[in-house]
Design goal:
The chain is an alpha/beta fold and about 725 residues long. The strands form six sheets. Strands 3, 4, 5, 6, 7 and 8 form a six-stranded parallel β-sheet that branches. It has a six-stranded antiparallel β-sheet with strand order 15-12-19-10-11-16. A five-stranded parallel β-sheet has the order 22-21-20-23-24, sandwiched between helices.
Amino acid sequence: LACFVLPVAAPLALVYYVLVQQNMVPSPLALQRQSAAKAAETKVEEEGKKAGSDTTPASGVKTESEGKAKAGASVVGKVAQRPQVESSVEGGRPLTGGVALLRRMREQKAAQAKRDNPDKKILVAYASQTGTAHEIAKVVHAQIAESCGSAKIPVLAAFNDVDIDTLRADKFPLVAFVAASTGDGDPPDNTASFYAKMLRKSDDEFKGVKYTCLGLGDSNYTRFMAVPRNMRKKFQSLGAENIYWDAEADEVDGLEETVDKWTEGAVKAVLKEYNALTNRSGGNVEAKGGKDSGFLGLPALLPRRVQFTWLSAKEGEGVKKGLRFSRDHVDGRGSYGPLAPYFAKVKSVKRVTPADYEKQIIHMELCLEGSNISYKPGDAFGVLPENSADLVGKILSYLGEDGSKCFTTSEQLNSIQTPCSIKDALSLHCDLTSPPKKTLLRMLAESCGEEKEKASLLEMISTAGKERYRKEILEGQPNLLDIFQAYPSCKPHAEDLIEFLPALAPREYSVSSASQVHTGEMHFAFSVVEYETVKGRVRHGVATTWLSKLAEEVEQGKTVRIPIFMRPSKEFQHPESISKPIIMIGPGTGVSPFRGFSHYRSFLQSRSKQDVGESWLFYGCRDRTKDFLYEEDFTELHEKSLLNHYEIAFSREQAEKVYVQHKMQDHQEKLGKLILEKEAYVFVCGDGLHMAKDVHKKLEDILCTSDAAMTPSSAKSYLQDMQKGGRYVRDIWS
């Protein structure tokens, strides 16, 4: 019997002894004294003990509760004089021993939960179309969570996932947000509904809320920083207070430097305010990561938030490979999106350029019959592309992963529909070609087996490696495979890679048809992107290369479908009235929407008796025998006087290059009168880096030449007024 009892009793006795020594349970002597005191208690005291039971009295028994509380008071008075170690009162009865210990543990747990999950939290929100703003917001969120020691204090969310009524001082007193625009000043999809609600708000509904904002934009666009600026202005008008620099990062100048500076300062400012607001003593506002790694200024190592469950080979059977969505999905209202696109059949393709020409341009026609999709000339549509099968295969081979392995996730990750295979995740959902952000490189550094390679990656993304990062990443433009080849010991787990890689973004194209003329169809043209980086790496555009391969399959007689969804344009639309003149300027594939404009205008002319304003088209390409896009359409419309003026700049057919702005110069007097006297509409589409700026400058010159009283400053103001009135609209890209 002793052999069985002693091994159990001895540890228990030791634990009891330690608890007594730590004053966490009463000793036997204390228990004897308590027993003697209880024997001497009166009947009133006995009732007081009953009142202290764990059962709460029914509400509304006010006099009985008061009586028991008084009876319990005498018990408290006596027990307080006893040599007990732990005593608390519940309902009038003192708690001692194990009961008191249990209560103490509960209170400590509740207090800890309160600290970890406070009522007042920090909102880190983002308005992101391509994923850049989201990536920056994730860094801010991670740094705040790391610095304040709790992942539950900061909340990361897209604006559409934020209940706007919770933006108040008692819920989210502090907001740090990163915002970008899409199109020419429109809110991103994940912010549109919040944005609309916010603009309808009035009074001081955000009073007590403090914020800081980082805006992302491209100064080539007409409405530069439209969404960030509008959001900041509205936050302030609703009573919110700015606590740190509202930064604006321009893609033309490079985002990195401004983003890093704002992120560091915003995190410090937000934590300082939060600590003061909640009387928190913790929260190191200095940049972390330096002490442990030996490098200062490292981006936070983002935490894993998604749980992957790997399926057996049998469980993985039946998973539809290569499909994110049902190919048969049809929406009754014709409403499709990135998560539920329409798979449009490619009806036909036409190669504009010779097969051996350095630049490939392809015209593609989609069948929309039965889709319920409607569109107008000037609209754009999104395409969900696929990564190169060769690139995906090389990455899988490098990682030693079986691409057919399937998994499910604990929550939605990007647009991944699970069960999904590793191959499909990399092919359809992950951006494998963009230069990696610092947060991704931080994760990859932790996946290196060689310390030298890990240190090299960490040094590059630290403060000391700023110049190296600029040269090797921003200028060198490596893709994921390039990083693996440069750091061969870097072997991340598949789940880490899938979670941390940016989402593969949709690509948008301008519609080049008019539904009234091209019934049941939608047309577009694209130039296959291929270029060489400063490091000599040849790069191919993800979407255009994929579409080019699909075009080859169509030419071989195969049935091809591509996932699409509409992107209606709010401003880049043909005027409903044809009485006003229209001037269209679009070199290269920028002429695509003007094919739709011209066909639509001819349709309106055939049904209208009103006077028709002049129509002008300025188009440019390199060589009339090589890359002349939509020559037949525009020539026919011009010959029928449905397109009054058709001016073409063939840039490389003579020694000195000629562009669309030079053709505009040739007709500056007529153009000036059309704009100033006839209130002509001006539309520009195409390259925003050079062409759009040159055309804008030429318009200013034309106005000054046409009106002697017009100065360069007033010409600029006149064009701005035209933009506000919808008479000067641009659809440009970098």
